[in-house]
Amino acid sequence: MAQVRVWEYPDSVIRPARGVPMSATTTKKKSGARDAYCPHCHLLIEKAAGKDWPKEPLRCPHCRLLVGSGRARPTPSAEPGARGSAAGVFAHDAKRAGTERTASKAQICQAIRDVAEAVGARPERLLMVDYQQRSAADDSVPELSDVFAAYGSWKRARRAAANGS
Question: For residue 58, what are the domain limits?
Answer without folding.
Answer: 34-78
